Give the backbone structure.
Amino acid sequence: MSTERATPVADTNQSRPRARRTTAIASVALLVFAVVLPFIPPFTGQDYQRWLVGAALMAAMAVAFDFTAGYINIVNFGFAAFVGVGAYTSGLLAANLGISPWIGMVAGGVSAGFIGLLTGMLTLRLRGIYAAVMTWFVGLALMGLARNMTEITRGSLGLNVPLLLDTSDNLPYYYVILGLLVITLGVLTAVTRSDLGLAFRAIGQNLQAAKASGINPTLFLVVNFTLSCAFAGVLGGFYAHYYGILTPDVMLTSHTVEVLAVAYIGGRGTLWGPAIIAFPLTIGVELLRTQFANLPGLHLVLYGIVLILVMVYWPTGFAGLVRWVRDWFERRREGGRAAPAQAQPGA
Amino acid sequence: MTTATNLRSVPLAKRFLSFTWIVIGLVVLAMVAFVFVQPSIVVDTLVTGGMWALMAGGLALVFGVMNIPNFAHGEFFMIGSLVAFTVFTPIQNWMLENPDAALVQVVGPFPGMVVAAIVGFGCGVLMEGLLFRPLRKRSRDQWVMNTFLLTAGVSVVLVNGNRLLFGNDFRGITRYWDVKPIEILGVPISVDRAMVFVIAMVTLAVFAVFLQRTRTGRSMRAVSQDETGAQMAGIGLNRVFMLTMGLSCALAALAGAALLFMFPSFPDVGVQPLYLAWYVVILAGLGNVQGAIVGAFIVAFLQTLAVYYVGLGWVDVLPTGFIILILLFKPSGLFGSEVKGVWEQ
């Protein structure tokens, strides 16, 4: 396997204790940084804190997206619709039955996961592009339902949803979504490190070989897809109770493309890459949007160009860049002592 | 492309008892029935079906020849409508000032469409040269998925580039030809819509002759069947790829130009045509151009039914349900070909 390969590259951290320690230190440092970030100017302003909430939400969604796209190599083009299913479930439960948003978020995850399960059973018999397009159609159909069942969802008039917390201050929301991001990243990373993750990677890289080694691909594909959709649903619940108003536009395909762009720019098949890159990307985009308010669309044009450049010239994304830098340092440190190339399987 | 030959080798009875033909037969029967019940449904189906056939034909062609599932196909529809508007507006103003120039009244709309198709062709060639060729050079690993995501990026750039350069305005015209509606099957139908159907049919016919009879068309089909084989026979791949991408985008741009009176130019105007072209292509089987043309009419029929009997909002929901049902029975689409191995990546 060459380093140029666009397929998810197996994380070799387990086999290298020192690298593992570095990773642990880096993650703790990043987490501490994310926790204190709202107290560092200019992030103390309400605008910036709102963007931070958006960034953390985007990070968590990109992680859940990358869990399918990067590992089993199925691109869920209806991702935004599953977020929307969770949002509407939670929002409707809270608005109509007065159920606590915290329970509603879990319920959103369950319902999105259930619809994901059905969609997965239906489409994951098909491979690659067919599955991507079918999930897209399912997403469009779900959005059509949300638009048309106006007596339940109020359609494009928008559904008023009770807020998650009794405050309009952004800071508490930031810590809630940061917690959700850590949970999402933690759970999904744990899954990918387990035997289950090994099966996912095997299927994503080479379906035939995976079949030959006794893996039932459809089962694992569906498990993976359902899990990703369930997390999307929980995040959708947060979305609903943070913004307080819900329209079917949350399910637009363009939102899926945004999540996809973050996941791919971050580095597919890594989970941590998208989680980190979402912050500078989202905040950069928001800054561009406010600085150039007279130039609508500029921020999205740049977004698209970055995605294109990454796709064509640097397919491993931000995570690939980090690995490249790390390897470069390692080569320098070990220079002359041993031939490092042989000691790094899969790198 | 391969289905035509496959069908010929199957016994006649078996051919018509297959699932595909039962579905087509049912649709045709329903259409015939509606001639008596609600003729406007049939007319609407034919008119919109013609245009979706142009869109979907181009999409299927690019997939068949280059294995690129083009998510940005709708954006060429958008470019076409923008170019047609820019070219047609001065002509229209001139026509309003000189109402006696009968010849110009008749041919006035065509320059816009032709220029739109040419610009579409140019954009397609540029996209192939600037994006797909470098990617092809770097790696063909997971080509289908990578190009799909790449075109998603292209779509974002084009839509927002349009917004950036031309703003969020609707640029539309009320009609191309300022004449009284004509009647078909007792249904009054505007000349614009009738002309759209004619334009679609003529273009598709020219396109079919080009693919079947000319040397270039044959080389395109050869590449779609077997790239390596075609290369060995001395076909320059780069040239064929450029031409294919250009043609496909030209068809989409032409559709956008011809439908300017229904879809005013707007940054997001390509979204619905894109969905529909994809519905058609998935229903028919990826990469099958002839199938896409038949599929376009099936989808147009479902859409028209949804508009008439369920409501405008359900236009997307009904075809989706139908396509999911079809794919349950035939995962590779109605006319799915056996070239599965190529794209099953």
About this structure: The CA atoms of residues 112 and 273 of chain B lie 20 Å apart. Chain B has a mean pLDDT of 81.
